[in-house]
Amino acid sequence: MFRYLWVLALLLSCSVGANAQNPCRLTLSGTVVDNQAKPLVGVAVRNTSNNSVVYTDRQGLFKLQNQCAGEQTVTFSFLGYDTVQRIISLPTQQNLRIVMNVGVVHVQDVTVTGIQSEHITSSRHHLLEETKQEFRAKPLAEMLSQIAGVSQLNTGSSIAKPVINGLHSNRVLLLNHGVRQEGQQWGAEHAPEIDPFTADRLEVIKGAEGVRYGADALGGVIISTANPIDPSKISGRVDLLGQSNGRGGVGNIRLEGGISKIPNLGWRIQASGKKIGNLQTTEYVLGNTGVEELNLSGLLQYNKGNHDLEFYYSHFGTNLGIFYGAHVSTLDDILANIERGRPSSTYDFTYNIASPRQRVDHDLAKIKWVYTLSGQTKLETQFALQRNRRKEYDLRRVMSDDTPMADMSLTTQTLDIALKSGHHRIGIDGMLQVNNNVPGTGTTPIIPNFDNHNLGVYAITQQHWGKFHGELGARYDYRYFDVAGFRYDYSSIDENGIVRQYLLTDRRHFHNWSGSAGLAYHASPAWTWKTNLGLAWRAPSANELYSDGLHHGSGTYEVGDPNLASERGFKWVNSILFKSENIAITTDLYAQYIKNYIYATPNPDSVRQTIRGTFPVFNYRQQDAFFYGVDLQLDWQINTAWSYTLKGSLVRARDLENHTYFPFIPADRIHQSIKWQYGTESENYIRLAHVFVDRQRRFDPATDYTQPPAAYHLFNAFASARLPIKQRNIQVNLGVENIFNVLYKDYMDRMRYFSHQMGRNITLGFTFQF
């Protein structure tokens, strides 16, 4: 008996000694409930001493790991509830029970950015950490498509753009670490140049957010942000992922900390890489669909007194192939390929990326200064510089294949100044953008050189009356567009069949008002209603106005219209939120009228023959449009181990002038999954998912080359486990997509004319945090 007691005492002394030697290895855990003892999901638990943040799970449980001994100030914040602050003494107090009372929305809706909520009446959705882990190796758009109402526009299986309520490209604004992302986003096959590994939080706002973010945000906003740095310790993570389809992998490493001699300085460095070979459908290899990426980023944060400084830099570099089957030589070939619906040639697996291909490099640098004048009054200033270099290669008959067919360099400078005081904000922002087509390609650029100047001023205010919370904003923008380039005159063809070119010069002025009005009503702890009416606008982009040439990335010939007018969109979103002890439901109903909606439509009666081959023609047109639809998400916690999730979305888009439908509008879709969580860790689970996408039944046969593809069902499975190794943890994720290896096409894939979607794919990932 005494021997066992002696062994127990020895173990306890070792444990105490270990804690004494490692004072910052403690865990603070507990439960957060409301005043009716019901668990609260998604409460932000923040240790203000080191800015570490976690969120409560479906049982209201939280764990703040790697905490230091001594007194810590911890806040508990949740939209609609009064913020709770506690001074905790570690290791004496390690398990807490926090009760939160219903309050008003304006009391510090704390997020990982550490600021007050700026979207109290908007439909705002964030991507779960669990989902990010499962889709780490995927493009940004595919990750975001796991949110109800968000889909993707594909060019094959390796290029994807996010679509919010049926709108994409220049109508969806991306904020990359607080900077408006500016690349060649006008192209339907130009994917966002953002590395998902740099984002600790990904959010989608489904509204016309033209006031806060400026022109172009007709469909919504995607926000990518990073957690603040804890300079008191060195920490980091390593991600390694592999996939069977494409026989490739992704790696990421991140390291952050501080400098002891500069206690208020935090630093972070990060790098990721990707290499994937030719992808494969159920029955054949997709030739030339490999991807290579190398991305870097660095962040410095410094605060002293009333001053907060932030320096950020990122580089995104990718080299990706374009499916061979989209580039053919004759009219008969293209029509035969469309009728066949699959490539006429067979391809072998390879990691080589040949022409046609894209090489894209995007550099972003920003400096941000926040000066606290007094209390809640702050002056924010941010300057950002971006450089986007896009090269598109094709098979060439005269020059080397290493010479790009298109070489575009876009440089963007932005300056934002804002004054925030409590619930009020006024600001001014400007943008200077220069696009140059680099000479030496031997081809006429698809878009001309241009200078783009923008200036905007805005004001936003929030008001709170008990359970009601309102927001009102207004903005004015001016845009000056100066263009110089070449255009074809198909009415003038010489005896050799060569089309005459003429010099194009043009100057356009665009200006417009934007506005927003919203209301949120917390009827009870379970029910919340939000309504938001937004007015936003968008000037036509250079390709919509002036394109006249082969778009090598997509294998299409595009023709713009210089007479296009600005789009103006009125979007009304109503959100109904319900949350009980075990059920959470979010419903978004929306309607949007867009005057002068611009779209590219296939012209079935026309193809364009060039020296490179024969390509389908897409013309830019403009009509008044009406979009409406509904997004639904239901989360049901069946018991402590089992849960069920259902997501559904439908969107309708009508041409009000011709009483018909627009092309490339997402079909109705349903996502559902059932999850079994084993053990006490939230990372230990097995999830089976089902995806149903209906056939697009609302289309105009006169504006497409073929009928929309059939509906399809996909089944996916995911498993996750957290493995403790030497006081550290490794998270393991296993996924199987398209379990039954279904051969299918998606209406939102611009390559559906020539090929099918990717077949079964098995992924295995490891994440090590230290």
Automatic annotation (TrEMBL):
<dbReference type="InterPro" id="IPR010917">
    <property type="entry name" value="TonB_rcpt_CS"/>
</dbReference>
<keyword id="KW-0675">Receptor</keyword>
<dbReference type="InterPro" id="IPR036942">
    <property type="entry name" value="Beta-barrel_TonB_sf"/>
</dbReference>
<keyword id="KW-0813">Transport</keyword>
<dbReference type="InterPro" id="IPR039426">
    <property type="entry name" value="TonB-dep_rcpt-like"/>
</dbReference>
<keyword id="KW-0812">Transmembrane</keyword>
<dbReference type="GO" id="GO:0015344">
    <property type="term" value="F:siderophore uptake transmembrane transporter activity"/>
</dbReference>
<dbReference type="InterPro" id="IPR000531">
    <property type="entry name" value="Beta-barrel_TonB"/>
</dbReference>
<feature type="signal peptide">
    <location>
        <begin position="1"/>
        <end position="20"/>
    </location>
</feature>
<dbReference type="InterPro" id="IPR008969">
    <property type="entry name" value="CarboxyPept-like_regulatory"/>
</dbReference>
<protein>
    <submittedName>
        <fullName>TonB-dependent receptor</fullName>
    </submittedName>
</protein>
<keyword id="KW-0998">Cell outer membrane</keyword>
<comment type="similarity">
    <text>Belongs to the TonB-dependent receptor family.</text>
</comment>
<dbReference type="InterPro" id="IPR012910">
    <property type="entry name" value="Plug_dom"/>
</dbReference>
<feature type="domain" description="TonB-dependent receptor plug">
    <location>
        <begin position="129"/>
        <end position="221"/>
    </location>
</feature>
<keyword id="KW-0732">Signal</keyword>
<keyword id="KW-0472">Membrane</keyword>
<keyword id="KW-0798">TonB box</keyword>
<dbReference type="Pfam" id="PF13715">
    <property type="entry name" value="CarbopepD_reg_2"/>
</dbReference>
<dbReference type="Pfam" id="PF07715">
    <property type="entry name" value="Plug"/>
</dbReference>
<dbReference type="InterPro" id="IPR037066">
    <property type="entry name" value="Plug_dom_sf"/>
</dbReference>
<dbReference type="GO" id="GO:0044718">
    <property type="term" value="P:siderophore transmembrane transport"/>
</dbReference>
<dbReference type="Pfam" id="PF00593">
    <property type="entry name" value="TonB_dep_Rec_b-barrel"/>
</dbReference>
<dbReference type="GO" id="GO:0009279">
    <property type="term" value="C:cell outer membrane"/>
</dbReference>
<keyword id="KW-1134">Transmembrane beta strand</keyword>
<feature type="domain" description="TonB-dependent receptor-like beta-barrel">
    <location>
        <begin position="301"/>
        <end position="739"/>
    </location>
</feature>
